[in-house]
Amino acid sequence: MAKIAVIEQGDQKPTFKQLDTLAELYKVPRWVFISEHLPEKYQLDKAIPAFRQFIDSNADVFSEHKVRSLIARVDRFRELILELREDMDEPVTDFHPLALKRNVASDFAAQQVRDWLDITEESFKFSKWKEMLEEKNIFVFMTSKYKGWSHVDKALFRGLAIYHQKLPIIIINDSDAKKAQSFTLFHELGHLLRKESAIDDWGAYHQRVERWCDELSGNVLMPAAQFQTAIHNINIDDLDEIKSIAGNFQVSAYACLVRLRQLRLIDQDDYLHFEAQLKAEYRKLQKKLKESAGGPARNRPQEVLNQYGHIYANALFQAYRNKEFGLHKLCQAFDLKRVPYVLEIGRQL
Predict the structure, then answer these.
(1) What is the C-alpha R_g of the chain?
(2) For residue 325, what are the CA distances in angstroms to 84, 301, 317, 321?
(3) What global pTM score does this model have?
(4) Could you read off the pLDDT of 59-89 as tens digits, one per residue?
(5) Which of 98, 87, 86, 82 is nearest to 166 (CA)?
(6) CB neighbour burial string for 88-108, b if at least 16 within 10 angstroms, e if fewer
């Protein structure tokens, strides 16, 4: 990886073997790296909308070649969906987000989001929230928690949004806890509602837009009135009590902690104290997992369906059933070698 970064920066010329590695990494022909004139789709700043916004919003994260490769590849998945749906005379309709005023308060915007999703007082698991946003023509892609082309360390980014007028993208880091992913999902939705693209990591709270997106997510997942009722007669000086509240709303303890700070129910010192405890627990858990002898068996069909989402999977299987391409290409589109796995995905749709 370090060698690739040196090549990207122009400090070293690649060997033919390294060209092959780069071509595989970015899923482009080898000649792209040696040609003086590139087709538009291979020009990164044109192939990926809002390239400049990524540079402006989080240049350090976007400088990572793996992040750029991930974004480029997921954007190509989006293009494939659009092409297949067009070929089937079922074009994807434009994304019609809420018409928010520029300086709208996050709590008011959150209520509009809940109305948009037809939610009253319910709380849902991440998978249900994800399904709701897919129904609004948002392509939600999950990175892999296992090693591979789509694995990205959670410390690098938790989520990102890529705005398109048609089929915008949200990418969620699956290395994060499921309950934390719900908070990230609605944070990224906040960027799409503002018609912007952004990469979000742990250290962005003090930026105005990031704070607004955090507040939007907190208000969607934990509406103020319901949250105030839930914490009545609860000792919020106890982390275990905070975890209990988080469980009621099906969010992470960290998200609940952020919500307590947003509503000024704890001060910054209390927040930092609890955050330090949560980080210490996380490090301890990671150490325990590394020392353990593996985990539960992987369910590859379900894993891949969760990763690519129903919009992508449905488009591919509909094209396959229409005989637009064969089983081999279908397997390639899911990056799977075993045919039974792919057929099982079809049965789960």
Answers:
(1) 21
(2) 11, 20, 10, 8
(3) 0.81
(4) 566 667 778 788 888 988 999 999 999 999 9
(5) 82
(6) eeeebeebebeebeeebebbe
